[in-house]
Amino acid sequence: MKISVIITLKKDVLDPQGKVIHQTLEGMGFNDVNEVRQGKYFEIETKETDNNKAKVKVEEMCKKLLANLVIENYKIIDLK
Amino acid sequence: MKSAVITFPGSNCDRDMDVALKKFGFKNKMIWHTDAELPKIDLVVLPGGFSYGDYLRCGSMASKSKIMQSVINFANSGGMVMGICNGFQILVETGLVPGVLLRNKYLEFICKNVFVKINNKKNKYFKNVENEVLEFHIAHNEGNYFCTNDQLKEIEDNNQIAINYCDEDGKIEDRFNPNGSIKNIAGIFNKEKNVLGMMPHPERMIDSSLSGEDGSLFFKNLINNLK
Questions:
Q1: Which domain holds residue B84?
Q2: Active-site residue B201, yes or no?
Q3: What are the backbone dihedrals phi and psi of residue A77, each rounded to the nearest 5 degrees, phi first?
Q4: CATH number for B32
Q5: What are phi and psi of B154, to 5 degrees?
Q6: In total, how many domains does chain B have?
Q7: CA distance B204 to B139
Q8: Domain assignment of residue A18, given as a range
Q9: Which of B30, B58, B143, B177 is the most exposed place for a label (fewest CB within 10 A)?
Q10: Would you call B203 a catalytic residue per the annotation?
Q11: pLDDT tens-digit map of B153-207
C-alpha cells in the first residue's frame, strides 16, 4: 500500500523560503499571487494492507518523526 | 571531571569540542552515535555540524539515534547535557528543551562573531561567570529560534532563557539579532537548567591568538561549577 503525506507549516510560522518564491513569481510576471507557503511531500510504501491500520501507523510516523508539531501540520492525503 | 562528546555522521565540531574540554581539565571521551550506553560521566556534549546532512529537519534524525535514549535518560535524571549549534537543534528535536530552530530570517548562512548577554546565572553553566556579555562565534543556517506563545510564557516564567544576542554593551535589540530568533534568544535551558542548548560556539573562543578568550571563561567556569 502507498500512503501520501503532506507536511505544511502552521499559519503563524514564518516561511522565508515561501516569501522568496512569492517574490520571484512576482518578478516573473505572476502578479495575482497572494501568498506562497512551502511544504513537504512523502510517499510511504508499506507492507500493511489494511487501510485503517496503515493510517494509524503513518500518523504515528508523522507525530514522531516526519513533522515537528510545534511548527508543522501533517495531512494524510492518499491511501492506495 | 569526565565528559563525553557524541559524534553523529556529519558532526564536524566534535573534535574542536574535545580539544576545548581537555584544555580546561575535562577527561573527555568521544562516543559514537550507535553506542547504546553512556559511560559514567558528569557532562554530555552534542556538538555542532550537519548530522545526517540536515535531512528532513536539522537534528531530527540524530535525535532518534541509539545513543540519544541514554542521553535523554541521563538528562531526565539531572545529568548535565549541553548542545551547541547542531547539538541545540538535536536537543529541540528530542523535546529536552522547548521550541524549534527555523531557517534564518534572511535565508543566509551566517558565520561571524556575536555578543551574547547572559540572562540567567543561577545554574551550573553560567554561575560565577564575571562578565555579563560574552563574545562567541556563530555559524548556522537554521538558528532562528521559534516557539509558541504558550511555550514562550512558560520559558519566561521559569527563567529558561540562557543567553540573548546583543551588542558589546549588552543591549538586546532587534538590530543585534542575526537570525530572527524570538526575543533574540541564542540559548535556552530546560526547566531544571541541567540541559542547555545554544547556537553560539564557545569552543571556537579558547585561544587569544586564533579568536578570543570568552569561550575559555565559559569552560573554566563550567568545570569549577561541576566540581
A1: 2-226
A2: yes
A3: -105, -15
A4: 3.40.50.880
A5: -65, -45
A6: 1
A7: 11
A8: 2-79
A9: B30
A10: yes
A11: 999 999 999 999 999 999 999 999 999 999 999 999 999 999 999 999 999 999 9
